[in-house]
Write a structure and sequence with these properties.
heterotrimer; A mainly alpha; B alpha/beta; C mainly alpha; A: mainly alpha; 13 helices; 0% strand; disordered N terminus; C: mainly alpha; globular; binds adenosine-5'-triphosphate; binds iron/sulfur cluster; binds magnesium ion
Amino acid sequence: MSVTTPSETVALATPDDPATAPASGRRPRRGLIRGILGNRKAAFGAAVLLLFGVVALAAPLLAPGNPSLITAIASQPPSLEHLFGTTAKGQDILALTMHGARTSLLVGFVVGAAATLVGLLVGVASAYFGWVIDDLLSLVTNVFLLIPGLPLLVILAAFLPPGIGTVVVVLIITGWAGSARVLRSQALSIRSKDFVAAAVVTGEHPLRIMFREILPNMASIVMSTFLACVIFGIGAQAGLEFLGLGDASVVSWGTNLYWASNDGALFTGAWWAFVPSGLCIALVAFALAMVNYAVDEVTNPRLRTTKKGRTRA
Amino acid sequence: MSTTPILEVTNLRVEYHGANRQVVAVNDVSFSIGEGEIFGLAGESGCGKSTVANAIMRLLKDPAEITGGQIRFKGRDLLALRGEELRRFRWKEIAMIFQSAMNSLNPVMTIGSQMVDIFTTHEGLSVKQARSRSAELLRLVSIDPVRLDSYPHQLSGGMRQRAVIAMALALEPSLLIMDEPTTALDVVVQQEIMAQISDLQRQLGFSVLFITHDMSLMVELSHRMAVMHSGRLVEMADAELMFDSPLHPYTLSLMNAFPPLTGPRVRLTGLSDSVRAADGSAGSCSFHVSCPPDLANCSGNIPDLREVAPGRFVAEHPRTSIEGTAA
Amino acid sequence: MRFIVRRLAFYLLAFWVSITLNFLLPRFMPGDPVTRMFAQAANKMQPHQIEQLRQLFGLDERPIWQQYLSYVQNIFTGQMGVSISRFPTPVSEVIGSQIGWTLLLGGTALVIAVVIGNLLGILAAWRRGGVLDSVFPPILVFVGSFPYFWLAMAALYLFGVVLGWFPIRHAFDAGMTPELSWTFLSSIATHLFLPALTIVLVSIGGWMLGMRNTMIATTAEDYILMAEAKGLTNNRIMFRYAARNAMLPSVTAFGMSFGFIVGGALLTEVVFAYPGVGYQLLAAVQGLDYPLMQGIFLTITAAVLVANFLVDIVYVRLDPRVRVS
Ligand SMILES: Nc1ncnc2c1ncn2[C@@H]1O[C@H](COP(=O)(O)OP(=O)(O)OP(=O)(O)O)[C@@H](O)[C@H]1O
Ligand code: SF4
Ligand SMILES: [Mg+2]
């Protein structure tokens, strides 16, 4: 079938007409990666994430030694010596925050990757095999989606031995269903496309179809699911630790907040004890969300906020 | 037919501003429709027919922009209408049946309330009065008024289409735009509906802008017609005359693409899929097979219409044959 | 009707899964936290209370299927053991006395966030590129990036401790007895304000953006174009044609979001010492009160399932296409 769009040639044939000149500031769209790189939201998000990543990696160099050690006078507001102040016990909050980034980001990304992977496997298998397997997997997914997350997190974490490993496992158990649902519906819609049908008819192996035909077309949705899962991981980890269900001896943004609250920072006016860690969680989540929106915008141009800069001819 | 035009479109130009390119969807198009006249607009998919219709209804929005020309209706400048004035004008003077009539009904409102809100908005009727008017309208298109309380998904495709026609006639507009009103229906229902429209038109005397790519359907219904190609008109004439002796090669091929509804069987030639690859240009006309090699692509450069005989307009083309022997 | 029955069966299944999970966790988890609990609390309990808890947590020597049957039976008759942290009150009584506050907080916050968020989304989509569309989303997304409990802490600190505009803990002034009087109700309202505000702030962005995106998709539908051609007023097109349709996915999301809102409410309660089940949950965690933790989990799950079922019924009223088939 030839798809003819003759009117476009009309425009191209009269390049001297000012109305047909490309609108300023709009670059052509070339592929997902290019589109994302050229997006301001994505650039902002990536820069913030990069900054946090570097700080997390370099924390032992920037703030050598165990950050939990008491090294200063207790409850000092920010000063030149302790830029973020000190806790009610006398720990340096800047050091706690930088070291906390290591655990929080690690847990967040591990949970994000694992939950996305589980969701992807379930979603693609569900979409590919269909019928009974799909019904079964969908049922399990929906049940997990329905059971309220935080109470489930709490009872799971309460019965498992405390530790970072438990936190990660528990977050994966409660987090995979959301991604499975999104990825299944995307996989289903790709499954119904002509080129997959063609591959099935020509007798390609199911695994090959899954990995060569279906998966590559899900790149952007997998990416945004992953980002959403990381946001979930970081936030939920902090919530668990804040309730005292994490390992209180590990330094992370969540445990920092737990101790700040336990030490009564709110009532002694020690705002510096709880502001840095909370702000870090929010900044990372916001940066991830920005990258996510950029992915959405690049793949779905209709959502873009249009600028009205044109004049009537 | 009366010849006082109620709609005059002059040098209309519409562009779509894409992310990285501009598309001139309608390029310097002029035509007029007389009172009580059925005017057909034909052309292949994507040539800009719906864009013309939406421009008249003033429904074009953001990526689309009217960048030139005039649209006058009963002497009024439609392009100057704004806000409340425009809202009152729509449906009262010009009503429209959309290309996808199947999807043009709100799925969560009953047919009745979608008819009632026309009367309550435009004529300030009470819901009760509006309902009885709506019931009358449904009867007019032979639908049982109990259907007022049905939801769109509960009606068959043909019924839905007739309900839309009933809605279009609600305020007795002077012009009815029909954008491929029967594309999604099977042939039998299509015939029924076209017959009904033709009856109603004779009864009520409104003018019609009838858009389709189906030439035989168009000739049956229209008084006068125009053929559109790449956003330009290539030919405009009395319907019978054009059908009998098309002047532009594009008209001819469009005609051969659809079998006539009546008459002897003929072999189909016409819009061929085998676009001539010689010129290699993207976005070329699918009619290349029967045009000469030196005319690789005229669609980028269609001249203005010229009156070659009284009421007979054609765009110059090396293969234009005034005698009507383009073969 | 078939739709409703299918959903109901699904919710029962989900509830059964939660009960079973509750049953299995203490029996198959490593480390045996339950024994620890008994070691701490057994000396203050009556023998029959100990016996009941032993049954609930699988420390009796009966075969597992017998344990399971009597467990399910106990749950459905509301016998979830005695609370350790609020000894000797039975778990069901502890929850019963506190779930009301959680429902009040969560419900208020949810309704406000949904109504305002969806309205903002509708307006933003209707005026693409307008102020609402370009200024609000990034701000709300940023606010929504904070953990619930952190925003609660910040609000408590700023408006409660520093400015002193709002009370900083509990659901009503100390020393008041619950009654239907103006002073008591206004005390409840001032105590509710900050916790509800934080939940609204965190969740409103999601509603707004979700609605905006479905609205944008909906406004591209042909029936919107036809409504416009019909010369209807802007408001009627926006609400009765566009928003009315765009709302449908929102209603489904409404059901799904109960779980999140409850989670947010629980954490917010902890910060404000608001006497709902969330605050009790913290006490339960700290006091190794496993019967109460499990009871709260089941109760909240049941509440979320019931809420989802109600949403399904509303959905059927809203979408005629589901109603018939
Ligand atoms: N939203 C849009 N953005 C960019 N270009 C568009 C848009 N809508 C239409 N066009 C372009 O305008 C041209 C004319 O479109 P139009 O819908 O008027 O065609 P048509 O003649 O009605 O076709 P059909 O018979 O398929 O309905 C097309 O070539 C299309 O590429
Ligand atoms: S010259 Fe080319 S573009 Fe013009 S009608 Fe012939 S085939 Fe079509
Ligand atoms: Mg069209």
